[in-house]
Amino acid sequence: SDQAVNCRELMKSFGWDTMDAFTQHDAQELNRILCDRLEEQMKGSPMDGSIKRLFEGEMENYIECIDVDYKSRRNETFYDIQLNIKGERGQELRSIEESLREFTA
């Protein structure tokens, strides 16, 4: 179709005003907004907590210093992670598995 689609209701469902429509949003941010809104809408229903159960993960940040006696562990929850498509040495990472290995190295 040559006609633009009116997305006013979609924007409203995100909690955006007219000015937000002209702000660039990335896919990760859109996913976070969608998950937040779905969680809000499902509160108190049989589906309450579904988004968290389906999409939330947990990672541990671990730091161990070489020159001093210091170790730190911190657990963080996440809904998404940013994976590189190129490795530290500039090589192309050809799969999600390779990107995850690089992410956790």
From TrEMBL:
One of its GO terms (molecular function) is cysteine-type deubiquitinase activity. Residues 2-71 form the Peptidase C19 ubiquitin carboxyl-terminal hydrolase domain. Pfam families: UCH. Gene3D superfamilies: Cysteine proteinases. Transmembrane segments: none annotated. InterPro entries: Papain-like_cys_pep_sf, Peptidase_C19, Peptidase_C19_UCH. This is Peptidase C19 ubiquitin carboxyl-terminal hydrolase domain-containing protein. GO terms for biological process: protein deubiquitination; regulation of protein stability. One of its GO terms (cellular component) is cytosol. It comes from the Eukaryota. It comes from Strombidinopsis acuminata.
